[in-house]
Amino acid sequence: MAVRSAERLKAAEEVIDQLRTELGAMGVTLPSLRVDPVSLAGESSYPLVELGRCNLDTAMRLAAVLHDVRR
User: Fold this and answer.
1) In angstroms, what CA-CA distances link 44 with 6, 30, 61, 66?
2) 14: Cβ–Cβ under 8 A, 6 or more apart, which residues?
3) Which of 27, 32, 47, 71 has a CA that sits 20 to 30 A from residue 39's CA?
4) Kind of pairing, strands 49-50 and 34-35?
5) What is the 3-state secondary structure (H, E, C) of 5-40?
């Protein structure tokens, strides 16, 4: 079971790195972006990614980026 958990954690960390990079390229930083530690203890296929809390400016930037992409 430990190998499976290590693989799940590695996959989650990789996608978080990708998400952090892509959001950063658009001027958005989510300071609390991380793997949800509680989900690692469960039996789910993959851990949850915690987007965390952000200030109003960051939320506005994220909304603007999503709006621009949708157009």
Assistant:
1) 13, 25, 32, 29
2) none
3) 27
4) antiparallel
5) HHHHHHHHHHHHHHHHHHHHHCCCCCCCCEECHHHH
Percentage of the residues of the chain whose pLDDT score is greater than 90: 49
Domain that holds residue 29: 2-70
Mean pLDDT over the full length of the chain: 86
pLDDT at res. 9: 84
**Distance, CA of 4 to chain centre:** 20
Give the sign of the dihedral formed by CA 55, CA 32, CA 15, CA 22.
Answer: positive
Q: What is the pLDDT of residues 13-44, one digit of tens each?
A: 999 999 999 999 988 999 999 998 888 776 66
Count of structural domains, the chain: 1
Which pair of structure tokens corresponds to residue 56?
A: 């109003």
